Amino acid sequence: MKLELIHKKIASCKKCELSKTRNLTVPGEGDPNSKLMFIGEAPGRKEDETGKPFHGAAGKILTQLLEHVGMERQDVFITSILKCRPPKNRLPKKEEVAECLKHLYSQFDSIKPKYIVLMGNSAIKHVFGKLDMSAEHGTVKQKDGRNYFITYHPAAILYRRRLFDTVKEDYAILKKLL
Ligand code: SF4
Questions:
Q1: Tens digit of pLDDT for each residue in 77-94?
Q2: Dihedral through CA 165, CA 77, CA 105, CA 88, nearest 10?
Q3: What is the pLDDT of residues 9-38, one digit of tens each?
Q4: Whole-model pTM above 0.85?
Q5: CATH architecture of 3-177
Q6: Among candidates 21, 59, 24, 22, which has minimal Cα distance to 40?
Q7: CA distance 91 to 134
């Protein structure tokens, strides 16, 4: 299915209760033919207001990390597991994730990225369950014929600045894989 059609479906989606509280859906943005897709867990307040992914403080760090390896946001595709904001940024419910993953898998099939970058434990757990981030970051894991690259969520750097260099190294590894 074409990406714009998938995004049209997302815009009118009422498959879970988050459709009642969202302001805008946040389908994702970037290059529809990118080799890289970046996945967070769910939109926050800024994203819900703008309909754009990663537009708050964590988004600025993501932009810096991409620039560190000579890429820009428009070179990749950025989205999240959920396309609607959970109220007060609460944790996503199992049934919400189960429904919304269908949209994400349609996006994978349309974009066909070489690597899917799972950012942070909260995104990772919906695909792989619990992983030890300190041991697994910067590595590739396969599932269902797809390549996933494991790294920290950019927001983690907001609280632990010393992680910045570690995550920059992850992005350098990722760039070399392309
Ligand atoms: S979170 Fe996903 S499944 Fe739920 S209403 Fe939004 S787009 Fe649909």
A1: 999 999 999 999 999 999
A2: 70
A3: 999 999 999 999 999 999 999 999 999 999
A4: yes
A5: 3-Layer(aba) Sandwich (3.40)
A6: 59
A7: 22
CB 143 within 8 Å of CB 100: no
Atom nearest to 13 CA in ligand 1: 8
170 C-alpha to center of ligand 1: Å? 30
Name the residue at shortest CA distance from atom 3 of ligand 1: 100
Q: Which amino acid is at 59?
A: G
Ligand 1 binding pocket mutation candidate from 80, 83, 97 (most atoms within 8 A of CB):
83
Q: Which protein residues touch ligand 1 with a CB less than 6 Å away?
A: 10, 13-16, 18-19, 25, 82-84, 96, 99-100, 103
Give the distance from CA 148 to its chain's centroid: 12
CB-CB neighbours of 121 under 10 Å: 18
- Where are the chain's structural domains? 3-177
